[in-house]
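Hi R.,

Here's the chain you asked about this morning:
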Amino acid sequence: MGFVDQYYCAVESVISGIVAEERASIKRAGDLVATSLSRGGMLYVFGCGHSHMLEEELFYRAGGLAPVCPMFDTATMLHEGAAKSSQLERRSGYAELVARRYPMGADDCLLVASTSGINPLTIEMAQTAKEMGAATVGISSFAYREKPSRHPDGLHLPDVCDVCVDNHVAVGDASVPVRSDGTKAGPTSSIATLLIANLIALEACERLRVSGAEPEVFLSGNCEGSDEHNAELVRRYSLRVRSL
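And the predicted structure, written out as tokens:
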């Protein structure tokens, strides 16, 4: 089997595992998000390194929920220094500096992603959000739960979230051996994590509809009537979402 087919099979296996085994946790996560939104709260979103794509996936996009506040911290992304981002992810204490810049409270929910779930930044982000009163949802690979944590107390991300969804990604992320020494390429974590994030958002939308509320969702800017529709949502949330 060629590399492309191996990768396809790996991705298919990850997605199948999520669909078969994570429905209950995705539903609980969607319920938490819907409860926050029904109370007028926000969905805050955070990830470090490649996991920061979670923030961009859920924020200000066609079919995306409007009450979403991405916690963009450029130092923890890649474009201002990829190696620096990895160092910050392992630094205890940095999460609080980021989190306290946002008015998270009892009506809000934080969605945080880290496939390894072993680094202090995302673990302490969830802990800080809880201290601020917010509900917390994590996305992580439970395959890492037996691996040593870099958190001062030895915690993993699933240990500190109200709900954590297993993204079924293998340790090391990459899935296809491409070198003679067994080194792999073909990571699966982004596909898995973004799938779960959208499933959680859809669960929240369904919960809102069942309760009689209409989910607030952005339209594609390339559809008729979208400019007026989206402008109203931006007007409504621009004071609460700095990136708008």
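The domain at 3-237 is CATH 3.40.50.10490 (Rossmann fold).

Let me know if you need anything else.
M.
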